[in-house]
């Protein structure tokens, strides 16, 4: 007997997310349940942040209670609100608890805000920015950044941007923040698209550059000739 394809599997295939069909079936997720699932619940089931965001938008479009214009309008509201009140680094740092203030954290938040601008500009194709966010998260391991610092960045972003917006736009900002933090953490923990091997190669390249600079500094010019300081009495 040929097994009939489930409604959930068919929907996921149409959305280009068929890889999650088995996991949803394993948890007994039927179409009615899927339609009401929120972004955070999808993440809890192991769905990647960009894919969860994509599925949530597809479900909103398919749901009779959310017209296509409402979804597009919410995402457009994110872009408009950013243009209206783009958050400065000073505003961001003012919301950071004083005991957490550090040069490394300031640098992270500066990079984070730069990426917010890129995410807002490409809000309809967020998955394309996943590698950049993961690389940024991975590099923070060199500077003593901890997991809670990424979560703090996402929390501050939502608090600064979500005020005086429609509920739909507020939800969209929560999703944008959640997407960014999830991708940063994926890179930070080394389980994203940016592999440990690439990280090690990056470190080796940096070390080679540093050694080359040291070799150059060990020599000085005297009357047009290079003198090796290591051999100078």
UniProtKB/TrEMBL annotation:
CDD domains given in the database record: SAM_superfamily
All copies of domain SAM, residue ranges: 4-65
Keywords assigned: Heme, Iron, Metal-binding, Oxygen transport, Transport
SMART domains: SAM (SM00454)
Keyword Glycoprotein among UniProt keywords: no
Disordered, as annotated region: 212-233
Gene Ontology MF annotations: heme binding; oxygen binding; oxygen carrier activity
Pfam families found in the cross-reference section: Globin, SAM_1
Family, as annotated: Belongs to the globin family.
The protein's name in its UniProt record: SAM domain-containing protein
